[in-house]
Amino acid sequence: MKAFKFLPLLLLFVFASCSTVRVATDYDRKVDFNSYNSFAFYKPGVDKAEISDLDKKRILRAIDAELSAKGLNKSNSPDLMVSIFTKERERIDVYNNAFGYGWGWNPWWYGGFYGNTVSRSTEGSLYIDLIDANTNELVWQGIGSARLITGSDVEAREERIQEIVREILAEYPPGAMKK
């Protein structure tokens, strides 16, 4: 009966862990980020990203929306160049399920069902680089890592990409999360 009390907590933990985006950022402390008012995408960097063209479009649209919401304008003569880079890897989690009773007897223990559950998922990392257009130097980088939606549910895939981009850019400009 005690197991049923913890079941809702376990389900909450499982669902929360599936939607988590781990974010890390780094930036040049000598840069005045308030001086940046416009951006454009750095085509050579975007072209090198090893993902489908459809996912590239989804990522670029999400970045455009987030930066525009922060007051930056898309421009042909930008202050910032935006580049992306992606990594993908298969994640395998093994859960030890030592529970239940079953067949067999041994002088040292009573046999039961002991097994493992293997869960496979694809984890991706999205790097968003902001480059000063005048100096051509990297001034800010955000990295978000999360489980990806790899099925054919286009709506869920688009929502996941928007969530990842939103979480990364929530930390731009530096100090934005402290306010």
Number of strands: 8
Number of helix segments?
4
| C-alpha end-to-end distance | 45 Å
Cα-atom Rg, whole angstroms?
A: 22 Å
Helix-strand sequence: HEEHHEEEEEEH
- Which percent band covers the strand fraction? 35-45%
Major β-sheet annotation: 6 strands, mixed
- Mean pLDDT across residues: 81
- The neighbouring-strand order within the major sheet is 1-8-7-4-2-3
Helix content: 25-40%
Structure notes:
This protein is an alpha/beta fold and 179 residues long. It has helices at 2-19, 43-48, 53-69, 154-169, and strands at residues 22-27, 38-41, 73-74, 80-98, 105-106, 109-110, 114-132, 138-147. The strands form two sheets. Strands 1-8-7-4-2-3 form a six-stranded mixed beta sheet. Strands 5-6 form a two-stranded antiparallel sheet. The radius of gyration is 22 Å and the shape is elongated. The termini are far apart. Residues 1-17 have low confidence and may be disordered.
Q: What is shown here, in short?
A:
This protein has helices spanning 2-19, 43-48, 53-69, 154-169; strands spanning 22-27, 38-41, 73-74, 80-98, 105-106, 109-110, 114-132, 138-147. The chain is α/β, with parallel strands linked by helices and 179 residues long.
